[in-house]
Amino acid sequence: MILKIGSTSRNVNIVQKNLKMLSYDPKGIDYIYGENTETAVKNFQSENSLVCDGIVGDHTWNALIDKIKNIQAALNSYGFNLAVDGIAGIDTYNCLLRFQEEHNLTADGIVGPETKNALFKNNNNSLTDFDISENGVNFIADYEDFYAKPYRGLDSQNQTIGYGHVIISGEHFESITKIQAKALLRKDLQSFVDIVNTITLSLNLTQCQFDALISFAYNCGISALKNSTLLKDIKGNASIEKIKEDFLMWCNCNGKRELGLYRRRYDEFEMYKDADYTRTYRDF
User: In the prediction, which pLDDT does 49 show?
Assistant: First the structure.
């Protein structure tokens, strides 16, 4: 998905509504991606560790959706019955107004600082719960490998640079330092951070457990984590041995067990269990 200056669609309308509820006013909800919407998007991106280009691609879209999902889930914890769909529609707006009125807040349908504090004060979750730790970022970078110059990824369609960063439209790189690559990796990880926060909303994870799930999702895909027995068993309080089995199920490539994937899954499990971020080079 790419939304930018000149775009006109229902998705632009969703972006504008979500931005406004999150206190990034696009100065109008009119289905037209104009300069005011671009400015609001840039402000949102800047404050949420996203590439600040004023363009709504997949990462920015996912972040906007996940922020609203967290608001909807928090409202439901106060007795409302909203669909947690990530869209700041009329039902979410009306429930937020009622919440603000019931808590003697300015009833404007915007989650500013006072409303945010009230909405999440009895909730262990917030608009941004965990962030990936520095140890987690370094672990992922070590496994992704560093490339200073652009190269073609496995799909042969996209160029990649740094620690697995896919170069998108509008980005131009001739070369990159490790420091710059690490900064890009952190931004790329942000959408995974937001989604994993959402799908683990009811769980009491530790930092190392959260980092392990981020690494798993970044490598295997967020859909793989969402639909995995790993997440199901974590939510079901399965034994640590069962959690280990769940991690190690994801070691195959083209139907064959792959040593590099086995090592990463085992290391992710040890991170999850013991907060051990060390990369090991064990054999099968």
Answer: 64
Q: What three-state secondary structure class fits 161?
A: strand
- Amino acid found at 212: A
- The amino acid present at 6, given as its one-letter code, is G
Residue 141 belongs to a domain: yes
pLDDT, residue 155, reads: 53
Q: How far is CA 266 from CA 93, 202, 238, in A?
A: 45, 25, 18
- 169 CB-contact burial (10 Å; exposed 0-12 / middle 13-18 / buried 19+): exposed
As a whole number of angstroms, the distance between CA 242 and CA 67 comes to 32
Q: Can you tell me whether residue 82 is helix, strand or coil?
A: coil
* pLDDT attached to residue 122: 62
Rama region for 275: left / alpha / beta (φ>0; ψ in -120 to 50; rest):
left
- The CA distance from 44 to 21, in Å, is 12
pLDDT in tens, 81-129: 999 899 999 999 999 999 999 999 999 999 988 898 888 876 554 454 6
Residues carrying an active site annotation: 144
Q: How many domains does the chain have?
A: 2
Residues 56 and 145 in one domain: no
- Report, in angstroms and rounded to the nearest whole number, the Rg of the chain calculated over CA atoms: 20
35 and 150 both lie in a single domain: no
Distance between CA atoms of residues 199 and 226, nearest Å: 7
